[in-house]
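ARCHIVE CARD
Drawer: 12
Card no.: 0347
Subject: one protein chain, sequence and derived structure
Cross-reference: see card 0346
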Amino acid sequence: MWRRVLAASLVGAPLAGFAQENKTNAPVMLAPVVVTATRTEEPVGNTAASVTVLTQADFARQNLTTLADALETVPGLAVLRNGTPGQVTSVFSRGAKNSHTQLIVDGRRVPAMLAGGYDWSTLDLTGVERIEVLRSANSALYGGDAIGGVVNVRTFSGRGLAQ
């Protein structure tokens, strides 16, 4: 009987010490990670490309409601609206055509319109966790539609913006 008690106390002893050690440690803040630039997780400071990450906190702080509104805050992008809100909106990355900025939602390419490019005004930020904007030629990883850059939208559900 005493062997079982001794064995149980020896097994639990290292775990108890480990739990006490973690309680005294301060939380560790990790550097923001970006996936769009290299298709692997990498800290933003280690990427060679120009990347901007917008989070839900940024949307709330700046009162942003659409993807076009969010992209207007990114340096190096030009967002042009054809008239009033709700009209066709184009995004130009570093002087490239609207059709040369690739839009990806939860890892899937969004099909372009018949004339090329996307209508950025119809995309709402409801359910969007973060937006990674890559402002440089990245056609080697994403194809010919990414000559100007890539806009990668990550949602909380992981099932796209329509869910």
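Annotation on reverse: The chain is about 25% helix and 25% strand. The first strand starts at residue 33 and ends at 34.
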